[in-house]
Every structure is written in C-alpha cells, then in structure tokens.
Amino acid sequence: MNAPRATYRLQLHAGFGFNDAAKIAPYLAELGVSHVYLSPILKARPGSVHGYDVTDHNQLNPELGTENDFSSMIAAFRNHGLGRILDIVPNHVGVWGADNPLWLDVLEWGPYSQYAGWFDIDWSAQDGKILAPVLGAQYGEALRWGKLKLRFEEDGSFAVWAYDAHKLPIDPLTFSQILGHQHPALDRMGDLFLDLPQWRPQVAERARALKSELVALTLKDEGAHAAIDARVQEFNSDWRELDRLIRDQFWRVAFFRVAEDEINYRRFFNINDLAGLRIEAGPVFDHVHARIFRMLESGEIDGLRIDHIDGLFDPKAYLEALRAGAKRPFYLVVEKILAPHEALRADWPVEGTTGYDYTNLALGVLVDPAGEQAFTQTYRGFAGEDQDFATIARDGKLRIMENEMASELNALGRRAAQLADQSPMTADLTRALLQRAIRQVVAHFPVYRTYLDFTGMPADADRRDVAWAMTRARRSDPDVHASAFDFLQNTLMAETEQPTQELSHTAALRFAMKVQQFSGPVMAKGVEDTAFYRYNRFIALNEVGGAPERFGLAPALFHKANAARAQNWPHAMLATATHDTKRGEDNRARLAVLSEMPEEWRRQVETWTRILRARRGDVERVAAPDPDDEYLLYQMLVGSWPLDMLDSPSAQQLEAYGARIHAALEKSLREAKRRSSWAAPDADYEQATQAFAKEALRSDTFRSNFLPFMRRVARLGIENSLIQTVGKLTAPGVPDIYQGGELWDLNLVDPDNRRPVDFEAREAAAADLVARLKAPDQRPALFKTLMDEWRDGRVKQATIALLLALRRDDPELFASGDYQPLVIDGDHSDWAFGYVRTSGDRKLAVVMARYPAHREAEPEWSAIARLPKARWFDLVRGWEADVGAPLHAWLHPLPFAVLLAR
C-alpha cells in the first residue's frame, strides 16, 4: 500500500466533471499533492450535486462524462504522478424518481422481488407494502388534483407517476384491472397476467415476456393500443377508480411527512430518498463493489474513503470483507466521527479516519480558554440562553426521535417487545415501556454508536459508554420501570444468556446491532443538525465532530493526540475543511480571534444591535429575529465577510454576499427547528429575519461601525489560518486540502462551500510562487511581500506549496517520524507551541505563535522555545535561525517557523 503524502479533494458534478478534473492535473502536481481525492463517481440521481445518491453501482455518472472521459482523467493524473482515492457509499442508494432499477423492481414485486432482501424493509409494518412518501400534499388531495397519473410504459408495463417525477410501478398481477373488458386480445393478456403466480420462481421472467407480447400487440393492433389509451384515460379521469388500483399495489404512496411516523425502510438519517442497503448480505456486497474492485485491480484507483461507516450493520466485518475482496493492497480511510474521549477501533483494518478529529484539534488550540466565562456571559446576556450544551444536545436528540425519526424508534420498540416476549422473565415489558427506555438511552449516548457484533464480546469502550448512557437514562425518566433498563443494558452488553433470560442470543445480538445503527443517525441529526444550530455561544466550535462545550484546547492535549496518531494511525487523514464542514477553515480560524477579545466583542455586538434595531423602531428587541438568531448572524458575518469587501464594498458585492448569507441563514433557522424547519417553514419569521440581515448589509451606519472591527479581526485571523495550515502539513498524518482551500476559505455551510473554484487564478498564482520558492535566498523577500498583500491568499498557497515540497523530498520523516512536543519557557509561554519530528538523523522542528490579538497588544512577549541542540535552518525565512532568542523576535511577521536541523 502506497500511502498518500497529501491529498486534494475534488467535488465532481455536472458543472465540473472528468474532463475538468483532468485539466487541473498539472496544477495539482505543481502544488505538491500526491493524490487526488474524488467524490463519488457512480451513476446518481439526475442533477445530483454530490454523488451520494447512487442509483447504479456498475455505471459511471453520465453527468460527469463518458467512460472515455474517465479513462482520460485517470491517464492525466497518472502522467503527473497523482494517485487516486475514491469516495464510495456502501450504506445507502438514491431512490424514488425513476432511476434505480433495483428499487423499481422492489416497488413492482414487493416482498417477492429478488432484491427485496437487499434493503432494510419491514414489510409487516405496512401490511406487506412499502411506504412511498413522495407527495407534497395529503394523498387524497394529490389524487383529486391529478398529481398521480397512470401511464402505459414503453416496455409494456404500467406505472403511476407522482408529479411526473416519481415512478411507482404497477404489480403485473393487477394488470387485468386495466386490460380487462376492453378488447378481446387485451382480455386474453389480462388473464395471462393473472396466471403469473403459477410461474414462480420464474414469475418476473414470465412477466417480462408478457409485457413484450403486450407491446407487440399494441404495435400491430391499433385497436388494442387505442383501448389501452382509453382505459388509462379512464383511470386518470376517475380518481376513485385510480385509488382502487393503487390500493392493490406493493407500495403505499403518501404525504412526505407520513414518513416521520410510518416509514418502513431504513434511510440515511431522515432523508426519504436515500434508502439503506443491507451491505452485510453477500450478494449486496458483491453487487455494490464489483466495479470498485475492478478499478482497484486495474490501478485506476489506489484508495477508498468509506462514507458513513457508522450506518453499517457490522462495520468491522464490512471492512474485513473489503480488504479480502481486493486483489491488491490499497489505502483505506473511514468517515468516522469520534467523541473527544473516543478512539478509533484498533482492530479495524484501516489507515484511519478522514480527519474530522484533527479539524477540531486544529481549531481548539487556537481558541483562548481564558475568554470562556466572558463569552458565556455575553451570550446569555444577549440571547437569553442559559442552558448548557449537554442539555441542548440531549433535547435535540429527543426531538429527532419524537418527530423526524419516530418511525425508526417505533420499529425498535416493536423489535424489543418481540425479543422480550421470548422469556417469561421479560414478557411483561410492553412495547411502549421499552420504547421509552430506548429513547432515553439513545438520547444520553456519549458517542455515535457502539460496535457489538455477532461475536457477542463488547469492547471495554462499549461497556463504558453503555453504562454511562444507562445511568443517565434511568435518572432522566424514573417512571420507566428499572426492569426495562435492565433488559436493554443486558441486551446492549450481550449479557442475555443468563438462565433467567431465556432469550435467543442471536436475536438479542441482532436487536442490539439495530440499536447501534439507530443511535448514530440520532446523534447526527439531533446534535450536529439541530443542537449545533441552537447553541450559538461561539459558532466556531459548532463543527462536525466538535464539542461546543469545550472552549479551547491546551497544547498538551494537542500534542497527546498527535503523538497517539503517530504511533497508531500515521496515515490517517488530517482535514481542516470538507464538503460537510459547517464553516470554511479560515472562517473558523478568524472567529477564533474573538475568543481573545470577549469584552470588545460584547461592546461591538451591543452597538450593532442598537444601530439595526433603532432603524426599525425596535429598541426592546421584540421583533424578529429573536436574540439568539441575531447573535448567530453577527458571528456569521464576522467569520465569512469577504476580504475584497473590507474597505468599500460595492452594491454588486453586497448583493452577491447577501445571497450567500440568505442561504446560510435559511439553513441555520430550519436546522435549529425552533422558529422554523424544513418540514414546516415559518415564512413570516424567516422573511423578517432575512430582512434584518439584508438591512445590516445595506446600512451605511452599520457598515461604518462594523468594518473597522472586521478589518482588524480579518488581519489577525490570517495568522491563525497560517498556523492551522502549517500544523496540518507537518503533524503526523496525511494532510487533505479541500478544493480551493489553498487560498483563503471563508465559506459558509453547504451549498456555499461547494461553489465553483477558480482554478485558473490559482494555477496562475502557483506558477510564479513555486518557481520562487525553489530558491531559499528569495523566500524572505517573497514571504514579506505575500504578508503585505495577505488579502489575496497567496501567502497561504506559498506556505502549502513549500511544505508539500518538503514532504515530497523527505517522505519518511512525515510518514513515520517520531513526534515530540517542544518545551516553551518564559512569560506567556502558552502563547506558543511546537514539536519536533525525527526520522533517523533527520530532524524537523515546528514552532507556532498563537493568540494574535494578545501578541498585538504585547508585541515583545518573552517566551523561548527549548529546541534540541543543532544548527537550525529556517525553511521559510531562508537563514539559520537564532533559536535562543525570544520568539517574538523571529516569529514575525509570519507567526510560525519550520526548521530543519543541519
């Protein structure tokens, strides 16, 4: 396995396909990455902007290009020495619409479909049907308004189409309702379709043959074709008759919100058009990975990123099957969100995670914990919020289980009751009681999930986390009888073989593993997609995998995590931005500056609200937005304000930026689910809040007050950005650069962070920089100029290019080098941190100065770094470093130094 030195993530879509990616191969090679890291490339729903809604695992997405285009892209990457890592999606597929042949077969044949077992469908929950929650109105209304239409298809089948978008195939055994009593030949065909059951198990093959006969009949007999058309028109003109036909199908079409209570197939989170696969089943695994294994074997791809590993029934077994199925070694990382106390499972056959754990380490070390109390007081005083994050997170999870994922909780309640009924000792535990207990346990889970499998041997970490959740669940709902919690605890810890239990051990394990599949989505939707939008104390901390209650991180903890990674996961990815992060990496780094100036921040916010509220005659702050959302808006503006708008933004710039803020604010309000939501938007509140944001951008008074503060924070923020960049490129692991992130990344939440990237501008800038970086004597003047012109972002690009070249020249130092923290002595020693990487006789030291606002206020701070004895050459400044001098003397104007021992 050839581990990457550094990766570059590309988001492929119709506007940026295979040919576009091939064109930037020279630039990516010049920048210095070793591998291109591609978003999913298999056929997805039409118009997909992300590719995670795969509909055919054997075809490339035609919106990205042809097979030849793909081959040309691979060749271009190879010609420039770039490996390829592919993002794949084993947990779910895109459904509804008319694009997934496997799903359409299940809709047509129900539980008799050869693919019915490929999906997690509880047929008993809908009396042998599958819920089709695709309607934008109640079923009866959609039916009467003509939103459901019967069609005769080109292949001889019939289907009901919802809104001309969602295909719902008609069961061939009910074709006689359409064909009968219209035409002699059609009467005969209807009888033949009625006789289909006698053809089992070849019923589907026989049905296809009959459909072909029906097509042939309509082609040669105009009367038959006219009779079918007339009959279809009758159904579409009489909604009661169409209803009778629909009721005889294997699907139940319904208003989309019915899914909250009655969905009977596993979804990706609560997204109705992403259906979970049973990847643990051999035929499903083989089908999903056939093309992927061929690409690995041929060398078209060199590594895989596994999306949503926690959604799988048995993650470890899946990863082992993946390794076993590939005919050559390959790089493998998983998208795994780790809690602060959690470690990646040591027995998983992977190189590590995709790097969200590092994202939050890199930010945490930039946040000043001394500002927490004042920051919290400001938030509580302004927004009136006094709940701690743990309470908000728990409430968010409870809300999700009561609403968007109530159906999944109901299903677990049924499973639990069926399991309990196996033993006289637990038979009195009712479904309602067990469901209440499950709800509380999952709400208190401190991690996404545990990993009990069919070996029935929970890890110590699993026991710890289950015990934690159980203790708090019992306290939270003392009215639930203790025996219900006892039953769950025994089940989740695989302690069901006691003589008094008399439960099927396999059934108990399967139930526990289903709970594990449920707890992850509840955490994701209840915390990251609810609580993170409700708790706005300091939104820089509200990041994927983050812990908003942890305000700042001591360098010692940063070093501990890096040393552990060097020891256990030296090839894990290091990310600071992805397509899923809530904010761009430099957006967060800029916001971190606020932690150093909580009192000034409070004064600014109070001034801004007076300006904007006074203009509206609302000095009491009773009109929308509510104070919490207003507080969010101010942080949103500070974090994302464009650098070319720091002086005198034009009307056009303000309008473009305002559109971005509008989209991010809309998403924030709806994800919070307090005053609005995706399912039930509050148009009045949203419009009033958006008008407030628009007024802020339009107000000359607001901008004249806002921009001076913004200019200072932006300038200080780029120092944090550079520290974050240097840390990622020199710490143990594989640094990943999100597309466009080699220049300043001030993006908001998606879709803002998936906007087109101007690669031509980046390529033009790199062409000049890379050549000048090769000459050490030119670097001092170059970096001085770049710092003077910091707004264009080239200083970040130059830093990345320089350090990627270093990684290329000495790969072993970074791939397997030792990691030791540096000792920093003197006054304000906590304002700096650093480390030494060692491989054989080669040494690299990295020293970084944090807290730029504090250093600005006290420019001659006197801390000193205690480096190992050596002649240290400053790679950036191009001279031998005077490492005995106070750090303020040589960490300026750049806040970092990368030193090589000579």
Helix percentage range: 40-55%
Largest sheet: 8 strands, parallel
Low-confidence stretches: none
On the 0 to 100 scale, the average pLDDT is 96
Strand order of the largest sheet: 16-15-14-5-2-1-18-17
Quantity of strands, as a count: 26
Shape: globular
| CA gyration radius, whole angstroms | 30 Å
The fraction of residues in strands falls at 5-15%
Provide structural commentary.
The protein is an alpha/beta fold and 902 residues long. It is 47% helix and 13% strand. It contains 34 helices and 26 strands. The protein has an 8-stranded parallel β-sheet with strand order 16-15-14-5-2-1-18-17. The protein is globular. The model has no long low-confidence stretch (mean pLDDT 96).
Indicate the topology.
Layout (H helix, E strand, L loop, with lengths): L6 E4 L7 H6 L1 H7 L3 E4 L3 E3 L9 E7 L6 H13 L3 E6 L3 E3 L6 H9 L20 E6 L3 H6 L3 E5 L5 E5 L3 E4 L6 H4 L4 H11 L8 H18 L1 H16 L1 H9 L3 E5 L3 H4 L4 E2 L2 E6 L5 H17 L4 E4 L8 H11 L5 E4 L17 E2 L2 H9 L7 H12 L5 H14 L3 H15 L10 H13 L16 H17 L5 H11 L12 H24 L26 H14 L4 E2 L10 H8 L5 H18 L11 H14 L10 H22 L10 H16 L1 H31 L3 E5 L20 H15 L5 H10 L5 H16 L1 H6 L1 E4 L1 E3 L6 E8 L2 E8 L2 H6 L6 E3 L5 E3 L4 E2 L6 H4 L5 E6 L1
Parallel strand pairs: 1-2, 1-18, 2-5, 5-14, 7-11, 14-15, 15-16, 17-18
Antiparallel strand pairs: 3-4, 6-13, 8-9, 9-10, 12-13, 19-21, 20-23, 21-22, 22-26, 24-25, 24-26
